[in-house]
Each structure stands twice: as structure tokens, then as C-alpha cells.
Write a structure and sequence with these properties.
heterodimer; A: eight-stranded mixed beta sheet; 12 strands; B: mainly alpha; MetI-like fold; 15 helices; 0% strand
Chain lengths: 345, 315
């Protein structure tokens, strides 16, 4: 057990996030377990509302509003779920860095970027203002911002979206965290900038030996960038495997549908874009059976009655929750154009 | 800077419009100033002479032009009643009103900012509801009623502070401040409520912003998030309301000035109106218009200080 904890930076067990609302309790995250080794990347993939971001906020101890988090979140040797706010605050920003989705709104518009980068260092590392400023300039350089010594005195509105996301990354890295949570870090950015930011994140992660949770709604973003991928649907993990294996054989039908809905440049022209019909179930209702069943073309009576467990079938570290999985061996190639191959090579 | 120059031009137009309108309205008041000035028992020749001396026979545009031409040179004419130059009268009354406004608004901010921040942070909590109710109570009271209450308690019962009277600064700062404490408080206890309300509202929406979430992700303590990250972007409406309040108090603190016998602008204006002392009234109106305009200008400057994006938009 200790060996496992040495290797694992983060072990989350049975996490639920329940949000009280007018129409009953919304189970945004429902009994999710995951683990992350030091220096590795775990991708969380799923459509909007599947609970990816909520899971991240649960790990950080910042559930929205009056939401309640349950479960154990072992980070290093501590259970974050048991820590008082003050001790959590000493971990957030120092040992866990966060990059949010939209750099247009995640930076404070009235504070200079240099100050926003310096803040966590001043808070956690107890260094002088001058030293923090120096390090802020270094960090701006490290995230690929040209002329960092000038940009350090800029306000966010003076920078482009891509530049702002680089600043956000610099903030997350300021205290050299062991874990970086990147919540849809490229979703709000121009396609041309997306690959740059993802590559930057990958490079920094390797240089600094950080573990990373990369949240995305796009399987294409994840391929070649994450060691492990977990697919979430309606608050549950429905398939999880090393990314290479997952792309080699997708078993859960939702994963497959998600994959098929990525537009591809090599598709014949005129072919309609694939989509998944229907919508996410109401998470405030009592849910029975497989949550994807109402949208699944392969669903049978059993799918509506019994929830399939998340278990392995053959390959030990490839787990999926499906009564009627896709045949193993149907290999899919990740969509090409968006993907500079990095980890793969 | 062009943003500010544009404002200046715009605002000086407002001053001209307001004073012209006042001139026009005073001209239509059904009372004969000349006979008032000439005094009881004056013959119609006397009155005619007075009218000629005051220049009342000239057409309105001429009179306004003469007045504003003199005003630009800093001459607002002489009081009909006392013969004192209006500029002098304003100069002697203005410091009292300014000190009253500064202290009142300072107290109001000291109450409103902590209350607004805390109630926004704990919106919907018992503390929020209690403070909201208390604030509502104060807002429903007129300032003069509060003033009388404060006098009863602090001056008559506890004898901590003088009930009325004004000591100029030359009589010592302590004595001067003592005289201003109760009147300033009577105003502040009413004025802090809208300030707190708008701050609370803006702050609640600011606290939902992504950058607040990111500040929490940085591990910053709540106090630093509220003061360092959320307060400044939440101050726009607060500054606007604050500016309007401060400007309206230049001539609007009449009751408080009367109750506490403070020789301020409000009192000068009201006395002038009852005495049909038009140069005084006109001078006070000019001052009030300029105060509004000036406060507006300062508020705009504050926007630029609060949010660097404002200045950029003006260029």
C-alpha cells in the first residue's frame, strides 16, 4: 500500500459532489475514483455537464456555492477532504496549480499581470516583493511571452487571448506545484493557438516533472498528450485506460460516439458531421441503469435496469462500464491534423 | 488625457445651461425685487431708480450675458440684502459645508464598505439579513430626525458633544471636529445605506467571476480575495452614487445646517431665497451646478483609476 502511495501523487476515492438546487439535489459527480502517478498526465474527457470541472473543484476543495463533497482525496499523504480551509489554502496555489478555461475572464482585469503571478509566491514562499517580481519575469519568459520584462507591467486587456492563457499558466506554475489542473485550457482559444498552448503545457510538465490533470471535451486534444484517459458521462467515469490502449480499442459506446463526433479533415466531403442524439440526463433525478442508455443505439432492457460496473475485461488497466461493449480490436486512429505527435514518438 | 478634456468641455456646457435656466426662472418669480430693495414707503421714482441701478430694465439675455461675463471674471455681484459681494458670502460659508460633506461621506464609506463586503460575501446569511434590515431602518429615517435623536442622546443625555454651534478651525481642531461630529453622523447614517446596497450588489456579481475562482485556486485567504481582488472591480456604482450624494449635499444639507446652526451654503441659499436676494441665489446655484459637474468629473477620473480599461476606451 505504501508503495502505491509513493508512486501515486493523488488518489481520489468515491468522490461525489452534490449541489442542492430547486429541483432536488444535482449529483454533478457521483462516486468517482481515480488515481494519478507523479509526473504523469491524466485526461478527463466528456461533454459539457459531465462533471469534469466539478471533479476538479472537488479535488481543490472549492465546490460551487453550497455544494457538498464526499469521498477521500489523498494528495501526498493528506486527505484533502478532511483538511481545514486554512491548510487547504496552503496547498492550493503552492502544491496544486490551476489553469482555467477562459483567460479572458480568469485574470483580474484591474491588476497587473506581474502582480497576479507574484501573488501566490508572496503568499506561499515568503519571498520579497522584488524577488517575486524577478521570478514573475522569469516565469513569463518560461511560458513563451516575448519581452517579459515589459509585459510584467501590462494589464490583462493589453494581451491577446493566447498570451493571457500563457500568463495564467505562469500563475499556476509560480510555486512549482506537484500537480497542475488544467481545466479546458484551450477551449476558449483560437485553433491556431490551441496546439501551442497544449505543447507548452506538455513541455513544462516534463521539465518540471509535474503531474497534470488535463480536462477536455475533445478526445482529439487528449490523444498523444495524456498517459491515461478517463471518459466521464453524467457524473460517472464510464471508461478509463492508458490513452494508447483507449485509442486502440474503445469499448464503451459513449467513448466511441464521442470519438466519432470529432470532425475529421480526411472524411469525404459532404458527409454530415456525426453527433450524439439526445442530451445528458437530469442529474437531479433518481437515475437507474446505464446513464447513457437513452442515447445509446445498442441499449437493451438490461441497460435501463442495471447500472454496469466500471470493470476490466481482459486488459487489467482498461476499465469500462458497459453491458454490451464494442468488440475489442476495432482500432481507431486519432484525428491527424490537430495532433502534433509528441508523447507517442 | 483626451478622455478627460472631452469631459471638461461637456461639463462646462452643463454649467452654462443650468445657470441660464435659473436666471430665466428667477425672472418669472412674481415679485418685484426693486421695491423690496428700495424698502417700505419708497416712491415709484425711488423704485424706478433702484431698478435702473440694478440693471433690471435691460432684456433678460443682456442681463444674463452681463452676469456670466462678470462671473467668468470671478464677480458674482453683491447681495441685495447686505451689499456684501456674493463671492465673499460663498467663501465664508463654503468651508463649513465642505468639511461637513467630507466628514459625512467619510463616515458613510467607513460604514458602507465593510458592511457591503461582508454582506456580499455572506449573501443570504443571517448576518446579511440582519444588516440589511438595520440598513433599511436607517434609510427610512430622514436625516433631520436622526439628527434630533443624536442630539438627545449624545448632547443632552450623555453631554459628550455640543448640541449646536460651529467653531472655526482657528478655534482648535478638536473643538471644530466636535461641532461637526453629530451633523456629519446624522447625514452619514442615512447616506451609507445606498452605498452599501450598491456595493453589495456589484460585489455579489464580482464574486461569481472566474478571476475570483482563480484567486481561490491560488490559495489566497478570504480577506485578501475580498479586498485585494473583488473590491476594486465592484466599486463603480459605489463611486457614482458617492459622487451624486456628495454633490447634492453642497446645497442639500440645509436642514442639518439649520438644526446644528452651521453657517453653510445650504443656509446661505435658503436665506437668500426667502429674502429674494437673487444675486446670492444665483451664486449658490452656480456653485451647486459646478459642484455636480466637478463631482461628475472626479467620478469619471475615478473610473479610470478603478479600471485601466476605461482610459484605453477613451483614446
Amino acid at each position: 500500500m505504501t508503495a502505491a502511495f509513493d508512486r501515486h501523487l493523488l488518489v481520489a476515492e468515491d468522490i461525489s459532489v452534490h449541489i442542492p438546487s430547486g429541483g432536488g439535489t444535482v449529483r454533478a459527480v457521483d462516486r468517482v475514483s481515480l488515481s494519478l502517478e507523479r509526473g504523469k498526465t491524466l485526461a478527463l474527457v466528456g461533454e459539457s455537464g459531465s462533471g469534469k470541472s466539478m471533479l476538479c473543484r472537488a479535488i481543490l476543495g472549492i465546490p460551487p456555492g453550497r455544494a457538498a463533497t464526499r469521498g477521500r482525496i489523498i494528495f501526498g499523504e493528506r486527505d484533502l477532504a478532511q483538511l481545514p480551509e486554512k491548510e487547504l489554502n496552503a496547498i492550493r496555489g503552492r502544491e496544486i496549480g490551476v489553469v482555467l478555461q477562459n483567460p479572458m475572464s480568469s485574470l483580474n482585469p484591474v491588476l497587473k499581470v506581474g502582480w497576479q503571478i507574484a501573488e501566490p509566491m508572496l503568499r506561499h514562499l515568503g519571498i520579497s516583493l522584488l524577488k517575486a517580481r524577478e521570478r514573475a519575469v522569469e516565469l513569463l519568459g518560461a511560458v513563451g511571452i516575448p519581452r517579459p520584462a515589459e509585459r510584467v507591467d501590462c494589464y490583462p486587456h493589453q494581451l491577446s487571448g493566447g498570451m493571457r492563457q500563457r500568463v495564467a499558466i505562469a500563475i499556476a506554475l509560480a510555486c512549482d506545484p506537484q500537480l497542475l489542473i488544467a481545466d479546458e485550457p484551450t477551449t476558449a482559444l483560437d485553433v491556431t493557438v490551441q496546439a501551442e498552448i497544449l505543447n507548452l503545457l506538455g513541455r513544462l510538465q516534463m521539465e518540471r516533472r509535474m503531474a497534470m490533470i488535463l480536462v477536455s471535451h475533445d478526445l482529439g486534444v487528449v490523444a498523444g498528450r495524456a498517459h491515461e484517459t478517463a471518459v466521464m458521462y453524467a457524473g460517472r467515469i464510464v471508461e478509463q485506460a492508458p490513452t494508447v490502449i483507449l485509442f486502440d480499442q474503445m469499448r464503451m459506446r459513449y467513448t466511441r460516439a464521442l470519438f466519432d463526433s470529432i470532425p475529421r479533415l480526411d472524411a469525404p466531403s459532404g458527409q454530415p458531421l456525426a453527433s450524439i442524439g439526445g442530451q445528458l440526463p437530469d442529474l437531479a433525478a433518481e437515475l437507474q441503469g446505464c446513464r447513457f442508455a437513452p442515447r445509446c443505439r445498442r441499449a437493451e432492457d438490461r441497460c435501463f435496469a442495471e447500472e454496469p460496473p466500471l470493470v476490466a475485461d481482459g486488459l487489467e488497466d482498461h476499465r469500462f462500464a458497459c453491458w454490451f461493449p464494442c468488440e475489442p480490436g476495432i482500432s481507431v486512429t486519432p484525428p491527424g491534423p490537430l495532433l502534433p505527435k509528441r508523447i507517442m514518438s | 488625457m483626451r478622455f478627460l478634456w472631452g469631459k471638461l468641455v461637456h461639463l462646462s456646457l452643463v454649467v452654462v445651461a443650468v445657470t441660464a435656466l435659473t436666471f430665466l426662472m428667477l425672472d418669472h418669480v412674481p415679485a418685484d425685487i426693486a421695491s423690496e430693495v428700495a424698502g417700505q414707503g419708497a416712491t415709484s421714482e425711488d423704485i424706478a431708480a433702484v431698478r435702473e441701478r440694478l440693471g433690471l430694465n435691460d432684456p433678460l439675455p443682456v442681463r444674463y450675458g452681463r452676469w456670466i461675463a462678470a462671473a467668468v471674471r470671478g464677480d458674482l455681484g453683491n447681495s441685495f440684502a447686505s451689499g456684501q459681494p456674493v463671492v465673499e458670502a460663498i467663501r465664508s460659508h463654503l468651508p463649513v459645508t465642505v468639511e461637513l460633506i467630507v466628514l459625512a461621506q467619510l463616515f458613510a464609506l467607513l460604514l458602507a464598505i465593510p458592511a457591503g463586503v461582508v454582506t456580499a460575501w455572506r449573501a443570504g446569511s443571517p448576518l446579511d439579513r440582519t444588516l440589511g434590515t438595520v440598513a433599511f431602518g436607517f434609510a427610512s429615517l430622514p436625516a433631520f430626525a436622526l439628527a434630533i435623536g443624536l442630539i438627545l442622546v449624545f448632547a443632552l443625555r450623555l453631554k459628550w458633544l455640543p448640541a449646536t454651534g460651529y467653531t472655526p478651525l482657528t478655534g482648535g481642531i478638536a473643538a471644530n471636529l466636535k461641532g461637526f461630529l453629530l451633523p456629519a453622523l446624522s447625514i452619514a447614517l442615512v447616506e451609507w445605506v445606498p452605498l452599501m446596497r450598491v456595493l453589495r450588489g456589484d460585489m455579489i456579481s464580482t464574486l461569481k467571476e472566474d478571476f475570483i475562482l482563480l484567486a481561490r485556486c491560488k490559495g489566497l485567504p478570504t480577506r485578501q480575495i475580498l479586498i485585494g481582488h473583488a473590491l476594486r472591480p465592484s466599486c463603480f456604482t459605489l463611486v457614482t452614487v458617492f459622487g451624486m450624494q456628495a454633490a447634492s449635499l453642497i446645497g442639500g444639507a440645509v436642514l442639518i445646517e439649520l438644526i446644528f446652526s452651521l453657517p453653510g451654503i445650504g443656509r446661505l441659499l435658503v436665506t437668500g431665497i426667502f429674502a429674494q436676494d437673487y444675486p446670492v441665489v444665483q451664486g449658490c446655484v452656480l456653485l451647486i451646478a459646478m459642484a455636480y459637474v466637478g463631482m461628475n468629473f472626479l467620478v469619471d477620473v475615478c473610473y479610470g483609476l478603478l479600471d485601466p480599461r476605461v482610459l484605453k476606451g477613451g483614446r
